[in-house]
Amino acid sequence: MKMIEVSNVHKKFHNLEVLKGISLQVEKGEVIAVIGPSGSGKSTLLRCLNHLEIIDKGAIIIQGKVMVSADSSDKSHYKPESEVRAACRKIGMVFQNFNLFPHKTVLENIIEAPMIVDKISKEQAVPIAEELLKKVGLLDKRNNYPSQISGGQKQRVAIARALAMKPDIMLFDEPTSALDPELTGEVLNTMKELAAEHMTMLVVTHEMGFAREVADRVIFMDNGEIVEQGAPEEIFLNPVHPRTKAFLNKML
Ligand code: ADP
Ligand code: MG
Predict the structure, then answer these.
(1) Which of 15, 20, 35, 44 to mutate to test the pocket of ligand 1 (most atoms within 8 A of CB)?
(2) Predicted pLDDT of residue 159
(3) pLDDT category, 242, cuts 50, 70, 90?
(4) How far apart are CA 4 and CA 2, in angstroms?
(5) Which atom of ligand 1 has the smallest separation from the CA of 204?
(6) Pocket flag, ligand 1, residue 13 (CB < 6 Å)
(7) Atom of ligand 1 nearest to the CA of 53
(8) Which ranges in 143-223 belong to alpha helices (H)?
(9) Can you tell me the distance from the alpha carbon of 67 to that of 64, in angstroms, rounded to the nearest whole number?
């Protein structure tokens, strides 16, 4: 079964067409790096998958569950709220700016969603959160507030928080872009471990080394379109499209 099926997705903000017919299929366990210039629609694409934005045209199916279908003129029709939520339920997302709750401790940040969304008790949620904190190497920070840990640590907490909902798909939107260079490695390592466990991952990133080393497939977006995609060695060593070449020349 495909994990994500996106067909001819169009998205406008007022008169600005930000996604111009994106089609994309993601297999189970695939790690995809999405690269491209600022403003090309990468974040918007991820946000559409997670129902943080509404698409205008096209269809999205998550793990066989239709979130939004398209009619014969390609106009989108969203399923009822409960079905949309069921389709997105297994998608976790990590943002550039961590988005931790500042007034909650590290542990409280992680147990919040399982308790509220999954309605599990605190007694059940805490051991799961502790296990995840151990996994990202931050069990000793469980009682710290976000202001009391580094940016890299905050992002690892954000990853643990997303994993607490037992996602089948993880979306990362430039997870290391807000970090000082010396802190990116610890976050990328946590992501590499997830990839090694065969998590299905869609990662928007400017870390070309990570894309090259970890991704199964690299997608180059520009101006609301997927311009070129392929195995990392194809994209990085033999890009075909002039826009891909120009972008990589700037990045590498
Ligand atoms: P990227 O992540 O590739 O930098 P984005 O998806 O964030 O690109 O943005 C694509 C375009 O959509 C940009 O021109 C951006 O200004 C615009 N945009 C994004 N979000 C909104 C919004 N909520 N309202 C209006 N325009 C937006
Ligand atoms: Mg972005």
Answers:
(1) 44
(2) 98
(3) very high
(4) 6
(5) 2
(6) yes
(7) 23
(8) 151-163, 181-196, 208-214
(9) 9
